Amino acid sequence: MSVALILAAKGHDVTTTQPHRTLQEAAAVLAERGIGAVIVTGGNSEVLGILSERDIVRAIGRHGAGALQDPVSKYMTSKVVTTQMDEAIDQVMELMTAGRFRHLPVIHNGRLAGVVSIGDVVKHRLDAMDAEHRAMREYIASA
Ligand code: AMP
């Protein structure tokens, strides 16, 4: 079971922002799309960072509401851990647990190809467990 399977189900859309945008603008995008993080990209669509709702809360907690007028670049995480299409989902869970984050951008052929969130992983695991239980019940019923 790989990342490609999750992206096949959820799609390859990636919500991005730019480093000069304000936290306020980024927060509006998160609220509008109902997501928890945006990928920060540069002029050539290269990944420069990631900004999650946690970064925004931390910025406001430390600097007050004025932080909302600061640029995204000030609070984003620049060292972004990414994954690939053929990465196993168990490995994705390990990366998220070890790194204490809930979002993983997917890079394919050097370009952003999607984002996997912890919610996607949990949904995938629940679906897999459900399928296993159903197969087991059918097997028992037919014995
Ligand atoms: P999250 O749990 O995704 O809301 O993020 C928690 C913290 O980890 C925030 O400071 C994010 O900027 C950072 N973060 C989220 N995803 C990643 C990632 N893939 N690589 C590195 N840092 C990340």
Description:
The chain has helices spanning 3-10, 23-33, 53-63, 89-99, 118-142, and strands spanning 16-17, 37-41, 47-52, 103-108, 111-117. It has one domain (3-142): CBS-domain (Roll), CATH 3.10.580. It has a three-stranded mixed β-sheet. A two-stranded antiparallel ribbon has the order 4-5. Helix 2 links the parallel strand 1 and strand 2 (37-41). The two termini are 29 Å apart. The protein has five helices and five strands. The protein is α+β, with helices and mostly antiparallel strands. The protein binds adenosine monophosphate (AMP).
Key phrases:
46% helix; two-stranded antiparallel ribbon; 5 helices; CBS-domain; single chain; alpha+beta; 143 residues; 18% strand; binds adenosine monophosphate; elongated; three-stranded mixed sheet
What is the helix fraction of residues, given as a range?
40-55%
Low-confidence stretches: none
The largest pleated sheet is described as: 3 strands, mixed
Please give the count of helices: 5
Characterize the quaternary organization of these chains: single chain
| Content of β-strand | 15-25%
Mind sketching the topology for me?
Blueprint: H1 3-10, E1 16-17, H2 23-33, E2 37-41, E3 47-52, H3 53-63, H4 89-99, E4 103-108, E5 111-117, H5 118-142
Parallel strand pairs: 1-2
Antiparallel strand pairs: 2-3, 4-5
The structure holds adenosine monophosphate.
